[in-house]
User: Fold this.
Amino acid sequence: MAQADKATLSKNNISSIELMEHAANLCFQWLQQHLKPNDVKIHVFCGIGNNGGDGLVITRYLIENNYNVTSYIVNFSHNRSENFLTNYERVKDIGDWPLVISTENEFPDINENDLIIDAIFGHGISRPPKGFTKKLIQYLNQKHAFTLAIDLPSG
Assistant:
């Protein structure tokens, strides 16, 4: 996946943030074909790397198109990618402040009719999730809500 990203950036002479915008736009278009605004509650779970940045771009598109969406930052580290931070600021600039999840006590209520967008981990993950992040993934899996994974499914 990392090699495919590099090749795409080089071949198209674009930045990684532009690739992220393009990929998230395609995901949003797919969602738009299958959902109508406010038909379903959408929960976007974002990690703090580039995959989380993808989730934040999708969040922005959903908000701008009047979908019922809440975004969450899964705060499993203090390290953030540059693209994540750029898209975090862009989401805040349109008036949405993602909720931060740092403990099990902060897991949101999710119904089986809701939609989960999993943008927690991407192809850069190098070890299994642990702690509250592992428990969050288990919690989301037990909810039986439709889940759309961006890049890789976390669970």
Remarks:
- Residues 5 and 11 are 10 Å apart (CA to CA).
- Strands lie at 42-46, 69-74, 99-101, 115-119, 146-149.
- The chain has five helices and five strands.
- The chain has a mean pLDDT of 89.
